[in-house]
């Protein structure tokens, strides 16, 4: 009696809904070679979420052979679980600008040499709506290895100050280490903001430039007395503020 694969009985639309619950490496390692029908569903699926920090070495060959950058909508660039340089490997196979449907990118422990090529390519991804990047990860992880790193870090900050104004205005979600790149640019699409360091007056200016903010998660740094700050909170659905100050006790407002 001929065996029938259960998944072959399902509409391809239902299989694609099932795929939404898994990351790209989980889909490709679990559903590859199940049947010709499922293989066709894999090829037609266009919403892969690729997370390098979750991939084991045993899965690398399969994933990088079968993933198609134009079908990835979410990308987490990071070192592997064993500390391997997976971001370097991936970007040696594909240019980031090939991820033409990319909507979200998270950068974790990225090698210094990759930052400029990554952000150069981000300018050319019109579907991008979410960015998470902490420049302190680079400083902490690599700064002690290179006595010239402070100069390189300043060069990197200068580069980011030029390129971020081309990227941030079209984003819905921004997660950065500090607010320096946000103070003077219009953010008409921004709905969700997360900052690890921001002064009260910087936050006030961001509110002025981001009329559609719905969610704010920020750590306020208060090192000296400041005058009145006015924030329009009526449009917010969520506000989470922690205050780190030499003048006041640390507190959190939610």
Q: Can you give keywords for this protein?
A:
single chain, 20% strand, disordered C terminus, 9 strands, 254 residues
Give an overview of the whole structure.
The chain is an alpha/beta fold and 254 residues long. Helix content is 35%, strand content 20%. It is built from 9 helices and 9 strands. α4 links the parallel β1 and β2. The protein starts with 11 loop residues before the first helix and ends with a strand. The relative contact order is 0.07.
Q: How would you sum up this structure in a few lines?
A:
With 254 residues, the chain is an alpha/beta fold.
Helices, by number, come to 9
Question: What is the quaternary state of this protein?
Answer: single chain
Task: Indicate the mean pLDDT.
Answer: 83
> Tell me, what's the shape?
globular
- Order of strands across the main sheet: 1-2-3-4-5-6-7-8-9
The amount of helix comes to 25-40%
Strand content: 15-25%
How many domains? The number is 3
Q: Flag low-confidence runs.
A: 249-254
Distance, first to last CA = 62 Å
Q: Could you spell the SSE succession in H and E letters?
A: HHHEHEHEHEHHEEHEEE
Which structural category fits the helices and strands? alpha/beta
Largest sheet: 9 strands, mixed
Write the layout of secondary structure elements.
Layout: H1 12-19, H2 24-31, H3 36-44, E1 48-51, H4 60-66, E2 72-77, H5 86-93, E3 104-107, H6 112-122, E4 130-133, H7 135-142, H8 149-167, E5 173-178, E6 192-198, H9 200-209, E7 215-222, E8 238-245, E9 251-253
Parallel strand pairs: 1-2, 2-3, 3-4, 4-5, 5-6, 6-7, 7-8
Antiparallel strand pairs: 8-9
Helix pairs in contact: 6-8
């Amino acid at each position: 009696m001929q065996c029938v694969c259960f998944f072959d009985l399902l509409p391809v639309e239902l299989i694609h809904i099932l795929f939404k619950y898994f990351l790209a490496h989980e889909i490709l390692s679990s559903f590859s070679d199940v049947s010709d029908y499922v293989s066709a569903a894999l090829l037609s699926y266009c919403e892969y979420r690729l997370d390098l920090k979750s991939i084991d070495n045993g899965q690398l060959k399969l994933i990088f052979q079968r993933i198609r950058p134009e079908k990835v909508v979410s990308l987490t660039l990071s070192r592997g679980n064993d500390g391997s340089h997976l971001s370097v490997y991936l970007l040696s196979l594909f240019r980031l600008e090939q991820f033409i449907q990319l909507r979200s990118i998270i950068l974790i422990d990225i090698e210094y040499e990759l930052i400029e090529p990554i952000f150069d390519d981000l300018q050319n991804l019109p579907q991008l709506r979410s960015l998470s990047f902490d420049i302190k990860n680079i400083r902490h992880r690599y700064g002690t290895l290179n006595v010239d790193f402070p100069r390189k870090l300043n060069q990197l900050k200068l580069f980011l100050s030029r390129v971020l104004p081309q990227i941030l205005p079209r984003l819905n979600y921004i997660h950065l280490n500090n607010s320096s790149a946000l103070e003077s640019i219009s953010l008409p699409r921004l709905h969700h903001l997360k900052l690890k360091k921001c002064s009260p007056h910087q936050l006030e200016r961001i509110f002025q430039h981001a009329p559609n903010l719905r969610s704010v998660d920020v750590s306020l740094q208060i090192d000296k007395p400041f005058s009145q700050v006015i924030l329009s909170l009526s449009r917010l659905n969520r506000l989470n503020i922690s205050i780190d100050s030499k003048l006041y006790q640390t507190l959190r407002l939610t």
